[in-house]
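pasting for ref
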Amino acid sequence: MDLRQLRYFVAIVQCGSISRASLQLNIAQPALSLHIRNMEADLGLPLLFRTPQGVQPTEAGLILLRNARLIIEQFEVAQREIRGSAAEPSGEVRLGLPSSISPLLGVPLVLAARARFPKVTLRIAEAMSGYVLDWLRQGRVDLGLLYGLPEDRELRATGLLVETLVVYGAPEPPDGRSHPEGDALSFADLAALPLILPSPGHGLRDLLDAAATARGIRLATAIDIDAYGAIKQLVERRLGYSILPGHAGRREVEDGRLRAWAVDPPLTRMVSLVQPTDRPPTQAVKAVEGLCRATLRDLVRSGEWHMARMRTSE
């Protein structure tokens, strides 16, 4: 017995006649009669009996009629909810952001989600990129932004944005040193500087070490610390130089608290949107994914994400 047969049965009872129901449903009368016989065979009881006024439901038919109406109504409710979820997504979406991205994207994205999708609850978790990657693999977040393209069959990654890395130092050089000459520094120049960088295993540090190794150069770190805020404070105190995204020290440079140099040739890294492949995304997740893309574009166009560009596909 299926939903279609239940609809036929309800129509026959409401019409009081198989022939009238046949006209209403635009189904041949013999085919409609066959459906009723099949239902009666499945249940082992007669569902209808004939009277001079037409067909009437038996006791079993009345029970089926009552439940059939409930089933059909509940199915229609489910259809409306499903169609409505596409038009107005609802539910919870968990987004993982690296600590370097959260200050830029977190607030604009929450505001955009509240304005566009009021029935979506967006929960943002902030951590180092490695933790965000683990959360994605463990199913603890629905979406994540990461640097690079993780090689994992259980994850789907799309590169969205490319940002440029910059060398930062205090306006005055560390004691006993002089600032490098020029506005751009080569890797050979960087190798001669005391650097304050995230520790090995951090995505940015691994990128810098790999770029240096490819050039046959080893970077010397004076301090390893996994927090951009602390790195900038230490650089301001003239304890060394650092290499960070262009947006990370923009305010400090504008305020005269830091000085910036370009890297020659330019050094960039990509920001990717990542999600698990083991489950289909909900309408709410799709909505937040679209908002992430749009908000990133707005941040780049406005210059808020300093020294960054969207990939051509975006």
